């Protein structure tokens, strides 16, 4: 296997755990640059973690890039573009620059433009799970001009990178829209179980929902729930209004329930049922297509 040096811009939580996993495999050589490492108190943790994982801390961003074949930016979303602009002064056509921050698809596209102009290639690398439990094996989705090569090289050292396409922003879109579901689900669960707990039926509601989820894949649920609602939203708006009133009577603000009412009202506003001919389709993709083109 071709040897190369992996460089982290920023050596915080994510970079540390990825490096820790890689250190257990004895490959590859890892370096890092973190502006906080030189600080007396703030940098102590960074320096300790670097020693623990065998990571070489560099004195400057330029030194890091000069030493690295593949550069991973793991700082934070708000610094992603400024750091890419600074790094662009030192990049060349021998480098792959990957941004692992949770930045928006638009920011990732801006970074891609900056990086691609240097001759280097770019990977919009979206971390799809929590890093610490998985370490270097955390699932990563990669898109952009350098994504295919990034995935190939990272997978050779035991990482789990899935190549999506050559369009920067695609991977970040996947992560962002997955968050709509996962964070929205958290909100729904909180509101549901608060009310159920207050009424003394929490375990029963959990069991009922669990049974429905166990019996269906996400695709089956989408075909069942989205398709039926697309032609029955009037009744469901009425049902959810009663739910919201009940929650208010229990002293629980129906934040998620009100959002549900608003989404169903939007279906009514665009005349979704009529556009579907009054019949629920078999495939939820048809509902999405009709809704987006209304």
CATH homology superfamily of the largest domain: NAD(P)-binding Rossmann-like Domain
Strand-residue fraction? 5-15%
- Over all CA atoms, what is the radius of gyration? 24 Å
- Strand runs, count: 8
The coarse silhouette is elongated
Percent of residues in helices: 55-70%
The total count of helices amounts to 14
Strand order of the largest sheet: 3-2-1-4-5-6-7-8
Overall average pLDDT: 96
Helix-strand pattern: EHEHEHEHEHEHEHEHHHHHHH
CATH class of the largest domain: Alpha Beta
What is the CATH-assigned architecture of the largest domain?
3-Layer(aba) Sandwich
CATH topology-level fold name of the largest domain: Rossmann fold
How far the N terminus sits from the C terminus, by CA atoms, comes to 53 Å
| Main beta-sheet annotation | 8 strands, mixed
In total, the number of domains comes to 2
Low-confidence stretches: none
Summarize the entry for a quick read.
This protein has 294 residues and is α/β, with parallel strands linked by helices. 56% of the residues lie in helices and 13% in strands.
Written description of the protein model:
This protein has two domains: 5-174, NAD(P)-binding Rossmann-like Domain (Rossmann fold); 180-292, Orthogonal Bundle (N-(1-d-carboxylethyl)-l-norvaline Dehydrogenase, domain 2). 56% of the residues lie in helices and 13% in strands. It has 14 helices and eight strands. α1 runs parallel beside α2, α8 packs antiparallel against α9 and α11 packs antiparallel against α12. It is elongated, with a radius of gyration of 24 Å.
């Amino acid at each position: 296997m071709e040897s190369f040096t992996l460089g982290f811009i920023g050596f915080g939580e994510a970079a540390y755990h990825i490096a820790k996993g890689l250190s257990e495999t004895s490959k590859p050589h890892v370096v890092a640059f973190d502006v906080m490492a030189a600080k007396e108190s703030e940098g102590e943790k960074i320096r300790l973690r670097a020693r623990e994982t065998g990571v070489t801390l560099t004195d400057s961003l330029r030194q890091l890039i000069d030493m690295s074949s593949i550069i991973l930016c793991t700082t934070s979303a708000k610094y992603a573009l400024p750091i890419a602009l600074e790094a662009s002064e030192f990049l060349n056509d021998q480098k792959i620059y990957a941004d692992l921050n949770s930045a928006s698809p638009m920011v990732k596209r801006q970074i891609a433009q900056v990086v691609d102009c240097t001759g280097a290639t770019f990977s919009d690398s979206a971390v799809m799970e929590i890093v610490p439990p998985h370490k270097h094996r955390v699932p990563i989705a990669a898109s952009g001009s350098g994504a295919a090569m990034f995935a190939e090289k990272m997978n050779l050292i035991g990482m789990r990178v899935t190549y999506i396409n050559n369009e920067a922003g695609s991977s970040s879109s996947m992560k962002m829209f997955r968050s709509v579901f996962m964070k929205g689900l958290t909100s729904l669960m909180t509101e549901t179980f608060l009310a159920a707990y207050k009424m003394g039926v929490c375990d029963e509601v959990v069991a009922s929902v669990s049974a429905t989820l166990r019996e269906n894949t996400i695709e089956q649920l989408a075909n069942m729930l989205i398709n039926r609602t697309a032609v029955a939203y009037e009744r469901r708006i009425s049902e959810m209004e009663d739910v919201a009133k009940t929650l208010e009577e229990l002293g629980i603000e129906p934040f998620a329930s009100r959002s549900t009412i608003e989404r169903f009202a939007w279906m009514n506003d665009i005349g979704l049922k009529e556009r579907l001919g009054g019949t629920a389709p078999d495939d939820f993709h048809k509902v999405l297509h009709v809704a987006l083109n209304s």
